[in-house]
Design goal:
230 residues; alpha/beta; Spore Coat Polysaccharide Biosynthesis Protein SpsA, Chain A; six-stranded mixed beta sheet; globular
Length: 230
Amino acid sequence: MKLAVIPARGGSKRIPRKNIKPFCGKPIIAWSIAAAHGSGCFDRVIVSTDDAEIAQVARDAGAEVPFVRPPELSDDHAGTIPVVRHAIECQAATGEAPSLVCCIYATAPFLVADDIKRGLDVLERSGGDFAFSIAKYPFPIQRAIRTDAAGRVSMFNPEHFQTRSQDLEEAYHDAGQFYWGLASAWCSAETLFGPASTAVVLAPHRVQDIDTPDDWVRAEWMFKALQAAA
């Protein structure tokens, strides 16, 4: 079976109640749940949470909440892999163990069903353990600049001061939307970022981290612009 796992703990600090905060008309987690269902990829779409209010919002949006996430996997240091592994173990305990699992972040309103389907196709064709979303940095990372306590600047890689942008290798970052993987890989892996993983490249204008209030405002403006252009 194919399982979607949406992690959504209750203890967000920088944006309180982030996982259920209204985003362009509905709780932000509802956008991820809708994309998961719309993809048609999954036998079950479940939310892993420690929070009763989040659980109810998730159910109202069409997801299942078959267990309560334990406290040791609900603090600020809980990683994605242990959380998904716990969900797999809970599902397997019902007698129906998943073979493929996709972790979808609760704060990924730009995620669309076609990207989830494309991720599954990439995983199956690659023969690897994971396939996850990435996006290209808008500026060459080799020409990044740091500042010191006095506000003075220096380059991270001064040897590239004269290098033309088009001659530098392109770099990508985790898009923070979805992570397809073999259930067996989720249960044994220590990292997703390795040679057993394959990239699913997304357009940069459909990727936005939402970690701060400023991020949230920017994301809503981007989302509204995309909706208007559709």
